[in-house]
Amino acid sequence: MIKRLLILLLAAQAALIGLLAAALYHGWRPAWQAELSAPATAVFYLACGLAVMVLLRLLISANNFYLSARAGSVTPPAHALNLFSAASLFCHEFHASMLTSSYYMLRPIGLRLQPDAQGLPVLLIHGYACNSGYWLPMSKWLARARISHYGIDLEPPGAAIDEFAPQVHAAVERLCRETGSAQVIIVGHSMGGLVARAYLRRYGAAHVARVITLGTPHYGTALAHFGPGSNAAQMRRDSDWLNALAASEANTQRTLISSIYSVHDNIVAPQDSSALPGARNLVFGAIGHVALGRHPAILRCTLQEIVAAVPSASA
């Protein structure tokens, strides 16, 4: 469903670029434009329309950083930004968001079994308003490491988080069946980490050796107030659902979890909402929310956590 919605959104953006180009053509005719050929004129005004669209996307990204800064937690001195690192953070996050929404999510990864696979198989759970295409960079790293993996697409997009748990259960069973493994490793981005915890609450950890969350708002995020859907409401700060989830977990279950997050996350705010007591918390800086799925430092750290995981005694 998300892929179909994305195609419609991209088509709408293309139409808007055409309308902007036509409006500029009729309202702005610099003297030098008369010297251009007809094809060159069309390319020029379409490029102007595209530039306006990119500028709008830049403003949306900048607004996310502004909102997350307003609701943000205190940045540790070790991760303080300078002008260069702040610019790099913004550019990398904008690049990641453009790639994800315009390319990755058009290519859901599905089940990817590796010949001569090594280690435990990995189940990839995407976040809010995404699909398994988000994991395309991670999939390439896993394939190089010869690790079988399965990216699922959670449906419907706005459902309550507990409604996704049966889908995860079916995916875990399928991945175990297809690989012959008794257990899997779950990697969840953003809301995907909460979906993994909801799965553990309902089905237990018998088939899970490790859960790795990337930028998951374990204690909610202020920006969830701007998102539609039951799942967005559940991700608000101190929501009843989050409190009930935390109250249901035993400390031994938390030890299964590695929480990887950035103190400069532009969607999860306050950023220390991703710190989960009892879990293994791995903290980074100068990385945005969407970029967590493709940043080399995060991919390397995640792969290290995957390789280090061993089947638990409950297998």
UniProtKB/TrEMBL annotation:
<dbReference type="InterPro" id="IPR000073">
    <property type="entry name" value="AB_hydrolase_1"/>
</dbReference>
<dbReference type="InterPro" id="IPR029058">
    <property type="entry name" value="AB_hydrolase_fold"/>
</dbReference>
<dbReference type="GO" id="GO:0016787">
    <property type="term" value="F:hydrolase activity"/>
</dbReference>
<keyword id="KW-0812">Transmembrane</keyword>
<protein>
    <submittedName>
        <fullName>Alpha/beta fold hydrolase</fullName>
    </submittedName>
</protein>
<keyword id="KW-0472">Membrane</keyword>
<keyword id="KW-1133">Transmembrane helix</keyword>
<feature type="transmembrane region" description="Helical">
    <location>
        <begin position="43"/>
        <end position="60"/>
    </location>
</feature>
<feature type="domain" description="AB hydrolase-1">
    <location>
        <begin position="121"/>
        <end position="255"/>
    </location>
</feature>
<dbReference type="Pfam" id="PF00561">
    <property type="entry name" value="Abhydrolase_1"/>
</dbReference>
<keyword id="KW-0378">Hydrolase</keyword>
